[in-house]
Specification:
By secondary structure, the protein is of the alpha+beta class. It has 26 helices and 13 strands. The strands form 2 sheets. Strands 2, 3, 4, 5, 6, 7 and 8 form a 7-stranded antiparallel beta sheet that branches. A 6-stranded mixed beta sheet has the order 1-13-12-9-11-10, with helices on both faces. Helix 8 runs antiparallel to helix 9, helix 17 packs antiparallel against helix 21 and helix 24 packs antiparallel against helix 25.
């Protein structure tokens, strides 16, 4: 089914996206890190803008394999959702950030993530989880001053969580472990308030009075309204417990009427006051307060259970067994509900762990791809530098010195030698050890054990990382040491002219990376060496040099071209999209179609990555056979294909084309595992109606595909 949607406020949507996109896309690593750190400091001021910026940073860091940036962006996203009280989503982002920071061994950020998770679970009244994360935060806290302040805040929150669950002794241990000196006034007041709450439980009137006076002096000095309200509560509770009962009850009633019902801490404070009343000379008043609190909408289940248990115990002591039974039954029902909630949360955490592991695999794959591409580029740049350097050398000794200098960072030989094949002998006319030139040497081609001779005869590079020199020319001061050595035959026009030898006192000098470089520069050195051997033929050889440079350019172009194609499907990948988009926009209106394979992740979970690759490859082949000659088909992401099509005026024709592609994609696929039914969602937008830049077009396309996916409409064409 095709559903057409019209954006309600497209201009404002793109304007918001542009703020994050223009700042993030294209930034280098360090600049993006600084930008995210600035955004993190402004989360409370404008969480919406901060969230958009963080989401763009997540996408850009995944594309580049920057795990530290990805971790920081997830942390900022979590903070924005927490600031907007979208706590469940914030939990997901904090969990991702925590996992990534663990991989980076960033203990400070791991502690911060655990502390934030503990804070959120505390607000959600899921105190078991809050205690678990807060204790983990303490385990990760370092001894720095900033971390010690975090540790104090965590211990205070941990103490309140333990008090809320009735673990008074454990809470007292946490408060006792706090060092009160060197922290902010607010943290000090928070600590003293927690101590006051614990002293109320101990029912020591004198200690309560003294602690209450201390808290009053501290609160008045800093003037924070939240802390003043909490102080008023403790004052009312003291009056209720030790002073004028009616006056204290009236004060508590006024505080209750003004309380924020979403602040679950209020319910615990009032519950503890109600328990004081229950043990006073007016127990019926205590029952009234407990009943009122139990009927409140936002009271945590754990607290409701404690209320019913308290009222059940009260009625048992007063021989009202029927009422006691009702409350015990209510407490039992709440207990089952609490256990069911814990099971659901545990299952959600298991599923979240799978998502985090998938994210890690995706980032690792992207990082590996980027690393391969970077190494390829570095290799080509090194080859170009060496070619330019050695081919401009005026003589053979200069050529060897320039080659040695250009190999720094790849290979660092202690001795480099170059020999010319003259008849049946190898004449080492240049032997450079460190910065000293050594006496010329000759090795006969009859020396079958010589690796120099073997390299010339076999015409290939020979190397060994634990080479013990025998018949070779030795380093003067290390003739018997185990060394790394390589022999490169110097060839020009299928004729072996000589050999290049690299020797090192260090074992394991030659790896895959360095040998790849030697393979690439082998023809370059051969040409340069031939020029040095016969200066009279320089002009004829210059043509070959140009040819060789063209070969190198072709290799570079081939490498660049390979980097622009998807290895799995053979289709152009996302790297060509900006160029293609600029080309198409120059020719006027056109349409973009984004096809998402909806059950790709499901196939991975059920059958593995190999079967998922077969599915993507088959769909790529199907689409290649279905699109027209003038269309451009691109694999834009792991489970998405993008098609650029010339503008189709008639909506019926456009719908028919989209339907034909959908029919092609969803044809069942037979694999070795079992038949798979592909599922897809298609979004269609047009240029320039839905955006004038690639970022704007992709934003609207993503919304269209998400709409098709969410509402099962299959195909969404944006008017």
């Amino acid at each position: 089914m095709i559903e057409r949607v019209r954006p309600t406020n497209n201009a404002s949507l793109l304007a918001v996206l542009e703020r994050g996109c223009k700042k993030i896309i294209g930034m280098n690593h360090d600049t993006l890190q600084q930008e995210l750190q600035q955004v993190a400091s402004a989360v409370e001021i404008d969480p919406q803008s901060a969230r958009l910026t963080a989401e763009k940073a997540i996408s850009w860091s995944q594309r580049n394999g920057w795990i530290d940036i990805l971790a920081l962006a997830n942390l900022v996203s979590a903070q924005t959702y927490a600031a907007q009280r979208v706590y469940r989503t914030a939990i997901d982002y904090f969990q991702r950030a925590k996992t990534l920071f663990k991989d980076l061994s960033d203990t400070e950020q791991v502690a911060k993530c655990h502390a934030e998770l503990g804070r959120i679970y505390y607000y959600l009244a899921e105190y078991s989880l809050a205690i678990d994360h807060l204790r983990k935060a303490l385990a990760w806290v370092s001894n720095t001053d900033t971390q010690q302040e975090l540790a104090m805040l965590v211990r205070i929150r941990l103490a309140h969580s333990l008090l809320n669950m009735g673990y008074w002794s454990d809470a007292e241990q946490e408060l006792t472990a706090i060092n009160q000196f060197g922290f902010s006034d607010i943290l000090l007041v928070e600590y003293q308030m927690a101590v006051l709450r614990l002293i109320f439980y101990r029912s020591d009137q004198r200690a309560i009075r003294e602690q209450l006076q201390l808290c009053r002096e501290l609160v008045l000095d800093i003037g924070v309204s939240r802390l003043e309200t909490t102080l008023h509560y403790y004052t009312a509770r003291y009056n209720l417990k030790y002073g004028k009962f009616k006056h204290g009850e009236q004060q508590l009633s006024e505080l209750w009427n003004k309380a924020d019902e979403t602040d679950r801490f209020v319910y615990f404070l009032l519950f503890e006051a109600a328990m004081d009343v229950l043990q006073s000379d007016f127990p019926q008043k205590g029952i009234q307060w407990l009943t009122m609190l139990a009927d409140a909408a936002n009271v945590p289940l754990l607290l409701k259970q404690r209320m019913h248990l308290a009222m059940g115990d009260f009625f048992v002591s007063h021989l009202s067994y029927k009422l006691a039974t009702e409350h015990f039954q209510s407490a039992n029902i709440l207990s089952r509900e609490i256990r069911e909630n814990e099971v659901r949360l545990q299952w959600a955490r298991f599923r979240a762990d799978d998502d985090y592991h998938l994210l890690q695999r995706q980032v690792a794959q992207q990082k590996q791809s980027n690393q391969i591409l970077a190494e390829s580029n570095a290799l080509l740049q090194a080859v170009n530098r060496i070619a330019l350097s050695v081919n401009s050398a005026p003589d053979l000794i200069s050529l060897v010195k320039r080659l040695r200098d250009q190999l720094v960072g790849w290979i660092e030989p202690d001795m480099i030698m170059m020999a010319e094949l003259k008849g049946n002998e190898l004449h080492f006319d240049v032997i450079l050890e460190d910065n000293r030139e050594r006496t010329k040497e000759i090795i006969s081609m009859d020396e079958e054990r010589s690796w120099s001779v073997r390299a010339v005869r076999e015409g290939r590079i020979l190397y060994k990382n634990d080479f013990s020199l025998t018949d070779e020319i030795k380093l003067l001061d290390s003739a018997s040491l185990v060394q790394s050595i390589a022999f490169i035959p110097l060839v020009w026009e299928s004729q072996t002219l000589g050999v290049l030898s690299l020797q090192s006192r260090q074992p394991q000098m030659f790896d895959v990376r360095s040998i790849s470089l030697l393979e690439y520069i082998k023809p370059v050195i051969g040409i340069a060496f031939s020029n040095m051997l016969n200066l009279d033929q320089t002009r004829q050889l210059s043509g070959e040099l140009i040819k060789q440079r063209k070969v190198l350019t072709d290799v570079q172009q081939m490498m660049e071209q390979l980097s622009e194609y998807d290895e799995l499907t053979g289709l152009p990948n996302r790297k060509v999209l900006p160029t293609e988009f600029e080309h198409w926009r120059e020719h006027g209106r056109f349409q973009c179609m984004l096809i998402r394979i909806r059950n790709h992740e499901e196939v991975i979970r059920k059958y593995g990555y190999m079967t998922a690759d077969i599915l993507i490859r088959e769909i790529g082949n199907r689409l290649s056979g279905q699109v027209r000659e003038q269309d451009v088909l691109i694999r834009s992401s792991e489970d998405q294909f993008l098609i650029l099509i010339p503008f189709i005026e008639a909506s019926e024709e456009l719908s028919a084309f989209a339907n034909s592609l959908m029919s092609t994609v969803i044809q069942p696929l037979t694999t070795d595992v079992q038949p798979i039914q592909p599922e897809a969602a298609i979004g269609v937008v047009q240029f320039p109606d839905h955006g004038e830049t690639l970022a704007e077009m992709m934003s609207v396309l993503s919304v269209a595909v998400a709409h098709a996916d969410q509402y099962s409409t299959s195909i969404v064409i944006v008017d």
